Structure formats: structure tokens, C-alpha cells
Amino acid sequence: MATFVIRRLIASVFVLLAATYLMYNLVALSGDPLEELRQSTAPNKEQLIESRTRLLNLDVPPPLRYFIWFGALLRGDFGVTIEGRSVNALLEQALGSTLQLVTISTIVAIFLGLIVGITTALRQYSGYDYSVTFVSFLFFSLPIFWVAVLLKQFVAIGFNDFLQSQSQLPLVAVAIIALVSGALWASIIPGSTKRKAITFAIALAATAGILTVMNLTNWFSYPALTIGGVAIMGIGAAFGFTALITGLKNRRALIAALIVAGLGIALYYPFQFSLSFYVTEWWMLLGLAVLTAIVSGAIGWFAGGVDRGPVIRVAIFTGITTAFVIALDRFMMVWDDYASSGRIRGRPIATIGASTPNLEGSLWVEGVDIYTHLLLPTLALILISFATYTRYSRASLLEVLNQDYIRTARAKGLSERTVVVRHAFRNALIPIATIVAFDIGGIVGGAVITERVFGWTGMGQLFQNGLEDVDPNPVMAFFVVVGGLAILFNLIADLVYAALDPRIRVN
């Protein structure tokens, strides 16, 4: 394993060297960085030209100037921009902003894409499968800038107008959403026509009831989950993760998950009205998440008996989900304060930028502000990536389900959950690992257009400004980061292959 990793890293270094040499020369030879000064009418024009020439070593030919840049890179210095600003400082700020954007969108797209792709494979040729296929190809064919414009118009501007005008869904909208929900669940749940009709009626009634309650409580202006919503989602997570990972027949796993959910519900009021006021930094919130995982794992360990591994996983997933819902409800509590503040003026969904300038407030207000600015660009990236993950995961699982060992597992009398989760799903992830590795490695570079549309100050702006100014240093900083991530995640993909399939050996 170590030999393989070292060999791949050495080969990757030579590839990156050749790529950076070519890229540096293409940028340097694409224009004249002194053109602006040559056309200037300033009395000290000659001094300015000489100063910039010395600053950027413009008196050295680009093929040789690359080695000056590379020598500085070995010391961890990306150089300075054409205006004399440190590229390291700009890169640190831009990379943090872009990673904040792409990390959330990538995780959500992978999670939703895998779930939807797997369910469509299990419900092949159903109405649900055809609908998801149509939507996936639709978003896959749309350009990202067009999706971004549509989101700005109908999600941001439309929702902000909705909050200011009425903040309650009209009855026609409630009826349409309820009918769509009923049809969706009826297409997902397998069975006879009678069972589908019952599913349709239950989903329609439940959706209509929830939306009616939201209208009556003015939920869109004052959102909240309350302890009732936390209890429903926590207990639902306990049953859901138990059914998925071990099956409901495993009483130890179900009891451990219910204990974890019950503990979260019991801590709801102490956290919301006491402990949350002491959480003033993001690392504190992250620390609480780690503590939740540790406590949940300990409960699973004590309740697990002989086979502790699956029980611990069920308990941890349930604990993290319950804690997330509690934290989400805490953010919802400050929504009205945020939306009605002088900086927001009743239009909370932002269409440009990464944050609201000069906004003051607690960690929870800051979190809501980050959410409102992340919403549109994250949705744009999710919709495009979601289509890819859905199609690949569906095709991969269908291929695995037709293998001989799957038929053997079913012939042995194993339950369908065991066949799909323990035998098919793991092997279906092998080709998906390649797609995920390529996407994660390249998504920092792929978010350039999205950042441009939404005015996001990140890696895209650093790259574009460098190209416009014929300034190789910021362009190369962008290129090194994107290339390094691509190499790293392709190496990780190779290692994941060996972890997913014992037949694959990394040597």
C-alpha cells in the first residue's frame, strides 16, 4: 500500500510540473501586463513601468520566469499580483469562501443523488423512475448560468415578494403540492393498485394538513419545529436507521436508537433556552456535534451486546440527526429577528455576495445569514451534480442486481433489505467512487461560473482577475490548488476501491 501511494505521488508530481509549466507560459504569453501603464498619461509612467517590471520579473522571458515562480512556490510563496498584493493572502480568503460553497453542495448532491438513484433502480420502469429520469436529464442539459438566473427570479425574488405580500400559501398552491406529494409517494411505494391508492390518500392528506397548519401558524414568517417536530424527526430517525442498517428485528439497535433520540428530546429545552446562549463560536457547535457522536456511540456500545458494530452506527446516526434538528430549530428561532433587521428589510433570501455587510448578531444570526447567501448558489450546484449522481447510481445498482451472487443471496432466503444494503449497495458504490473523486477534485474549479453569477468572492474571481490582468501568479495559485485536489482525490478513489471490494488489491 505504501509503495503504491508513493509511486502515484511521484508520478503526480511530474504531471503537475508539466501542467503548471504549460499553464504559466500560456497565461504569460496571452497579453501584455504593462499595456495599461503604456497607455497611461501619468507623469511618472516610466517609473511605474519599471517598478512593475521589477515586481513581476517581466524582463525575464516567460519560459525562464516560470522557474523563478516555481522556486518561490517551493518556499510556500505564490508571489504577488499585478497590484502588489500577496497572492497567499488572496488565496486563503478565496479558498475558504469557495470551500464553504462547494462542500455543502457536494455532500448534499451525493447524499440525495445516491438515495434517489438507488430508489429508482429498485422501482425500475415505475412512474417514479420515469419522472426522476426526466428531471435528471432536464437539469443535466441546462447550463449552470441559466439555472442560476431561474433560481434568482423564482426562488429569491419570488419568495421575498411572497413574504412581504401574504406569507401564506393560497389554497390552490396547497392543493397542487398535496396532489404532487400523493402521486410521488404512490409511485415510490410498491404494491397493488389498492395499496397505491391508500398511499396516495395518506400522503395527500398528510401534506395538506401540514401545509394548512403552517398557514394557520404563519410558519413562513415565524418558522419553528418545536419539541413536537424534534420528537417526530428524532424517533423517525431511530426507526429509519434501524430498519436500514440492521432491520427492525434487531431490538438492541432499536432500543439504543430510541434511547439516543429520547436523550436528545430531553435536552431540547435546556439547550434552546440556556446552553445555546453560551455557544458563541462555530468550533463550539462542532465540539457539541463530536460530543453527540461520542455519547451516542457509547450508548450503542453498552446496548449492543455481542454484535456492537451495527448498533453503534445506528445510535450515532440517530444522535447526529436529532442534534442537527435541535440546532436547526435554534437557527429558526432567530429568523424573524434576522429578516426584520435594518440590513435585510424583509427580503431575507440573498441574490448576491457571501454575507450581509455590517450585520451584527449572535452566532445563530450569523448562521442564518450564511444560509440565506449559500442557498441559491448551493442549489444551482446541487441540481447539476444531482442529475449525474442519480443516473450513475441507478445504472450501477441495476448492473449489480443482475449479478449471479445477488441471485444466490436471494435463493438463500435473505431478506430484500439484506440483499440490497449488504450485498448490492457496497459493490454499486465502486463506479460511483470514481465520479465522486472527479467531482470533488474539480468542483473548486467548476464553481467559477456559479460564483460569477452570484457575486461570490472566491476562487473563480481570483482566476478571472488573473486572466484579465495577464497576471500568472493568481492564475497559477488557482491551478495548483485545483490540480492538487484532483490528484489527491483520484488517489483516494483508488484506495476506496480496495476498501469496497476485497477482490481489488492496491499493489
Radius of gyration: 27 Å
The low-confidence parts are none
Strand content: under 5%
* Sheet of most strands: none
Our count of helices gives: 21
Mean pLDDT rating: 86
Order of helices and strands: HHHHHHHHHHHHHHHHHHHHH
Terminal CA distance reads: 6 Å
- Estimate percent helicity: over 70%
Shape: globular
Task: Summarize the model shown.
Helix content is 77%, strand content 0%. It has helices at 2-28, 35-38, 45-56, 62-74, 87-122, 127-141, 144-165, 171-188, 193-216, 226-245, 251-266, 268-273, 282-304, 308-333, 335-339, 363-401, 404-411, 416-446, 448-453, 459-468, 472-500.
Tell me the layout of helices and strands.
Elements: H1 2-28, H2 35-38, H3 45-56, H4 62-74, H5 87-122, H6 127-141, H7 144-165, H8 171-188, H9 193-216, H10 226-245, H11 251-266, H12 268-273, H13 282-304, H14 308-333, H15 335-339, H16 363-401, H17 404-411, H18 416-446, H19 448-453, H20 459-468, H21 472-500
Question: Could you explain the architecture of this structure?
Answer:
This protein has a domain of 291 residues. Helices cover 77% and strands 0% of the residues. The protein is globular, with a radius of gyration of 27 Å. The chain starts with a helix and ends in a 7-residue tail after the last helix.
Highlighted features:
globular, mainly alpha, 507 residues, 21 helices
